[in-house]
């Protein structure tokens, strides 16, 4: 399997975007970071928000003009849809589709709504992905410090000017991502891999692993505070080592005791059979059933999400962590 192309500032011409009017639709953590970075790169940016949005005051305080979503679609050639994934379909149908024209380009930070059919633009309207691999806060802070964050970029549909890819690259470079690297991929691959990583590892697998490990020690009679530090708090140390040095670098920087213990016990905790269960998770992403359930959850007012947050808040692990964080982050 060949390597995917990676672009830097040398391949992304900012002039492509500097000649366009750009609207950021949404002004949450990502929308704000995108807008500020684009403006600091010389791009003309305006903000599009729905009526009554509490973000309007923040955007205006930051010095941006705030307009209706409809007005932005009518005025701007490039539109970055940075509202929550699950409302893209409704926003697109109600505010964007009636006014969008061939030649315009829609930018997405995540491919969910396009990949699962919530947004389907007419021929001649560009659909591109520019997905910085960081929080909005980190995207902004890295930009201000002269650095950048890695981004994924892809084109689902070209615009009538046949320059959707150039717009995507220019946009990513204006965010500061070209200082590091912009990896070309597809909407499908980004969406499936992103959802799988969240569910199998980052937000599902890790949470479950931490909870069971903490409970095992506490139920065996060990102090909950010590269990929290050893099973939860120290995760950041290992994650940071993997982030900066890779798996081998992490192994070379931990104690021999820790490395040998992991070697002897790792497969006992997470055995090869987990791959079959992970494949089941991936299957539900690939066949669209996860997306359907998530959109149903949204329509019902997120009852499972709210119930889960209450349940997690009530766990001894979370209560112990809340107590210790009063000392850790004073």
SSE order and pairing:
Elements: E1 6-7, H1 15-18, E2 21-25, H2 29-40, E3 44-48, H3 55-61, E4 66-67, H4 69-75, E5 78-81, H5 88-96, E6 105-108, H6 112-115, E7 126-132, H7 136-144, E8 151-157, H8 164-174, E9 182-184, H9 187-202, H10 205-219, H11 224-233, H12 235-253, H13 256-269, H14 274-286, H15 289-299, H16 303-314, H17 316-328
Parallel strand pairs: 2-3, 2-5, 3-4, 5-6, 6-7, 8-9
Antiparallel strand pairs: 1-9, 7-8
Mean pLDDT: 96
CATH fold naming of the largest domain: Rossmann fold
Q: Return Rg in Å.
A: 22 Å
Widest sheet, order of strands: 1-9-8-7-6-5-2-3-4
The total tally of domains equals 2
Q: Any low-confidence stretches, pLDDT <50, length ≥5?
A: none
Number of extended strands: 9
Order of helices and strands: EHEHEHEHEHEHEHEHEHHHHHHHHH
CATH architecture of the largest domain: 3-Layer(aba) Sandwich
Question: By CATH's scheme, which homologous superfamily of the largest domain applies?
Answer: NAD(P)-binding Rossmann-like Domain
């Amino acid at each position: 399997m060949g390597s995917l192309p990676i672009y830097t500032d040398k391949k992304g011409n900012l002039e492509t975007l500097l000649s366009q009017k750009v609207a950021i639709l949404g002004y949450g953590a990502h929308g704000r970071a995108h807008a500020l970075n684009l403006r600091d790169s010389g791009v003309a940016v305006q903000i599009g928000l729905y009526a009554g949005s509490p973000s309007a005051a923040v955007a205006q305080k930051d010095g941006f003009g705030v307009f209706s979503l409809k007005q932005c679609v009518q005025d701007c050639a490039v539109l970055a849809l940075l509202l929550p994934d699950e409302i893209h379909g409704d926003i697109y149908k109600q505010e964007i589709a009636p006014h969008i024209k061939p030649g315009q380009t829609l930018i997405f930070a995540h491919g969910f709504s396009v990949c699962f059919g919530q947004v389907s633009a007419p021929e001649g309207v560009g659909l591109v992905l520019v997905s910085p691999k960081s929080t909005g806060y980190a995207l902004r802070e890295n930009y201000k410090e002269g650095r950048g964050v890695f981004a994924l970029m892809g084109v689902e549909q070209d615009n009538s000017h046949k320059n959707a890819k150039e717009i995507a690259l220019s946009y990513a470079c204006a965010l500061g991502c070209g200082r590091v690297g912009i990896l070309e991929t597809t909407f499908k691959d980004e969406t499936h891999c992103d959802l799988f990583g969240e569910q199998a590892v980052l937000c599902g697998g890790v949470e479950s692993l931490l909870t069971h490990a903490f409970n095992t020690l506490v139920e065996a009679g060990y102090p909950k505070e010590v269990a929290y530090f050893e099973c939860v708090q120290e995760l950041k140390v290992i994650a940071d080592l993997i982030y900066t040095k890779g798996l081998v670098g992490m192994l070379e920087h931990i104690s021999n005791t820790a490395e040998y213990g992991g070697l002897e016990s790792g497969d006992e905790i997470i055995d090869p059979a987990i791959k079959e269960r992970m494949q089941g998770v991936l299957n539900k992403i690939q066949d669209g059933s996860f997306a359907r359930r998530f959109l149903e959850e949204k329509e019902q007012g997120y009852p499972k999400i709210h119930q889960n947050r209450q349940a997690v808040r009530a766990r001894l692990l979370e209560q112990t962590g809340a107590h210790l964080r009063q000392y850790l982050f004073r």
